[in-house]
Each structure stands twice: as C-alpha cells, then as structure tokens.
Write a structure and sequence with these properties.
alpha+beta; Cathepsin B, Chain A; 5-stranded antiparallel sheet; 8 helices; globular
Length: about 250
Amino acid sequence: MKKRIIIFLLAILFGGISLFLFKAEKNNSKIISDDLPENYPKTEKVEILNLEEKVSVNEERKIIPEKFFLKVPFTVQAPNAIWDEYHEEACEEASLIMVKYFLDGKKLTPEIAEKEIQALIKFQIKNYEDYKDSSAEEIVKLARDYYGIENLEVIYDFSIDTIKKYLSLGKPIIVPAAGRLLNNPNFKAPGPLYHNLVFTGYNENEIITNDPGTKRGEGYTYDMNVLYKAIHDFTGKKEDIEKGRKAMIIVK
C-alpha cells in the first residue's frame, strides 16, 4: 500500500516538473521571438553569394579614392620644339607613346620621343595612307598594329566618376578633346580644334594630365567640369569636333 502511495506521489511530482518545463520553454520562446524591445540588437540577414557574385559585389563597393596620381613619362608632341606640319598633328602619337612607355616601365627622353613620333608617322603613311586626326578607335588600332598592344579599349558616354574609377585602377587614359574648349593658356592661340592628351590622376576639383600640346604639359591640371565638357571623339571633320561622342581609351 505504501509503495503505491509513493509511486503515485512520484508520478504527480514528475508530471508537475514536466508541465513547468514545458511552460517555461514556451514562455521563453515567446520572449525571444515576440517580446523583444525595439532597440534590442537583432541578427543581420546573412547574404550568401557564389564566388562570381562576390567579385561583382566587391567591385561595386570599391571606394574610389578622393585623390589619385600616376607618374607617367611625358613628352611634348614636338620634342625638339619644331612645330612643323608633322608635329602640329602629333598629339595622338605623343599620347600613345606616353602610355606605351608607362606600360613598359621605360624612361622617355626627347630624343627617344622624337624617334618614336617619326616612326609612327611613317608607319601610318605607309599602312593607312594618312597620319592626321585619328579617332579613339583608330588610335587603338595603331597601338595594336605598331606596338602590339592588345589591351586597349575605347569606352563611350561615361561620367566623371567613371574616369576616376579607371584611373584609380592604376593605369593612364588617353582622351580625345575639342582643343579650344580646354582654354589652355599655353596653347598657341586660338588652340587646336582637335587634340589628344593623357589623364594621369585627379584631385577634388581637377583632372591631372600629361598634355603633349605644350612643353609645360607634364602634370598639367584642368578644371574637372571644363575638361569633361571638352571630351569629344574625332568625327571625321575637325570643324564638327564638338558633335563627337565622349570617348576615352583605357588599359584593360
């Protein structure tokens, strides 16, 4: 009889404990899921990406530095200060030479630059029948045909931020422009209708260039908005240069 009473009491005790634990667990769950205060720190949603998506997201989130500068070898388009018909038209060649010597990590002297300009002009006359006023695509073709450079590409219709983005990757940019819109006081007035120059960096309000149109062109700075408005690709006629698309030659 006593055994039955003891077993009955233990059963009641066990059942009570189980009921208490069940309610406690239920209440605890309710506190965790429903009754959190508004300022209680919540777990952030985890973003699961594959490798390709991670690369894309990282590129988009990359911060463009406020200032950037590349040391690019400089040459004026008339290295010997002889502004004859050939050198008046040699801004494309000089710009390409600066980028070529930057990519090769070589020193560029006036003597070397003059030889390179003469060689590029002769090559174009022989193979293209003309050397004047090349469009961005034609400059890329010249780089490939003469120097064997395969990693240049023309980008069209871009923003100032896009210019900064490509420069911040550590590579210079060749840009065609309506020369007279640049308002460079070092140009012989009124300045060239069509011009090419190399972007080497930027700061808060300016684009830093190697401008081959003047002997003072190394590290020459232009107001960012003035220069951006002057960017136009060659249309086939100098007088229509301001109708040209915005174009720039980047190193891929």
